[in-house]
Amino acid sequence: MEVIPNSSVKVGYLVSAVFSISLHSKDVNILRQIKSYFNEVGSLSVNSKINKCFYRVKSIDEIVNNIIPHFDKYPLKSRKNADYVLWKNIANIINLKGHLNNHGFQEILNNKATLNRGLNEKLSKAFPFSQPVPRPSVPEITNFDPYWIAGFTTGEGCFRIRTYKNSKRTLGHTISLQFILTQHSIDSQLISRVKDYLGCGHFRVYSENRPACEMRVNDIKSIVDIIIPLFQEYHILGVKALDFADFCKAAEIVKTGAHNSQEGSDQILAIKVGMNKGRLDPSHQISAEPCIEESGSFYVYNHNHTVLYYQTTNLSELTEDLEIKRYNLLRCLDKGTVYYTKFTFSRSLIPEAKHHLISLGELKALMLNVRLKRNK
């Protein structure tokens, strides 16, 4: 919520309840979907300087009629649920015009004193007699919905590939695949319950110097048998869906033991480079130069770049497996030419594109079907 000094108001401050979600700018499409879900209320903005995008709802009518009913129906499971109750109290006071008189304004401050980080230094000095309300209790977590797990992982999870030096290994290193969920330590019960729900992994709370907790799955059997099937059925959204797709490719290599060979290790390390922060690094984006780099990530879209079909770091998958002439593929990458009027290739991840990721075999069959129709 916002409390801004304003001498033209009786209580001396303008007060507003604000609902806000921020993500990396690469995931702006997720915020567009959320805005659409809430009947297009609120505003969407992108700050390219800090690579952040924001969805905000400030209208009290829109908050009362759209935001609050949703979270009343689908309660938050983390400790943030307590902050939601406090924020809702403030929104209801504002909706009843209570923020325009001294009593209602003080009631808002008492709630804000407990909400999130509390009153800032200026408000604390201006209103030293504010009495923080008791923090609402959070309902005990008794069950999970797999769609909630997928949504929570989209926002808070990580699919990671790690390498560790190991002189006992022929290649001099060990490769580890890891699925991780991290939260502030106040939500340690939540993360522990997620671990129990999944039936795999390890849970730990960090030291007092780092108030955080995590659950981590790093054994390949649990990853292949539990984690991957879960998210193949209940989908991750946004850029993280591409990280999950790469994670699955690496898991297939590890599952067969091929990661212990030089070729398999090189394939996994090539996947690792383009994941997570590597995928978001501007240096991995398409160059304006006509010369096409043959390393990094390649994306296959439909004819107008609105649907993402496939992503790879292996150019030969596109030229050899899909039977596309190298010259034609590089021309499509350079000029943006549409291939067989149905497909486009790019070095850039387009945030607005819907993710309809398919296997290489499915993509090959789709292209073959288009070719057969064209040749009739």
Report what the structure shows.
The chain is α+β, with helices and mostly antiparallel strands and 376 residues long. The protein has three domains: 2-18 and 58-126, Homing endonucleases (Endonuclease I-creI, Roll); 146-278, Homing endonucleases (Endonuclease I-creI); 285-375, no CATH class. 42% of the residues lie in helices and 19% in strands. It has helices at 28-37, 60-73, 80-95, 102-112, 121-126, 146-156, 188-198, 220-233, 240-255, 262-273, 277-280, 315-321, 326-335, 360-375; strands at 2-5, 13-16, 19-24, 43-47, 52-57, 157-165, 173-184, 202-205, 212-217, 298-302, 307-312, 343-346, 354-355. The strands form four sheets. A four-stranded antiparallel β-sheet has the order 6-7-9-8. The radius of gyration is 25 Å and the shape is globular. It starts with a strand and ends with a helix.
Mean pLDDT over the residues: 86
Fill in the CATH topology of the largest domain: Endonuclease I-creI
Helicity level:
40-55%
Low-confidence stretches: 281-295
Number of strand elements: 13
Largest sheet: 4 strands, antiparallel
Q: State the CATH superfamily name of the largest domain.
A: Homing endonucleases
- Classified by CATH, the class of the largest domain is Alpha Beta
Basic shape: globular
User: Kindly, what is the distance between the CA atoms of the first and last residues, rounded to a whole number of angstroms?
Assistant: 63 Å
Strand order of the largest sheet: 6-7-9-8
Nearest-angstrom radius of gyration? Answer: 25 Å
Q: How many domains is the backbone divided into?
A: 3
- What's the order of the H and E elements? EEEHEEHHHHHEEHEEHHHHEEHHEEH
- Derived from helix and strand composition plus strand pairing, the structural class reads alpha+beta
- CATH-defined architecture of the largest domain: Roll
Helical region count?
Answer: 14
Percentage of residues in DSSP E strands: 15-25%
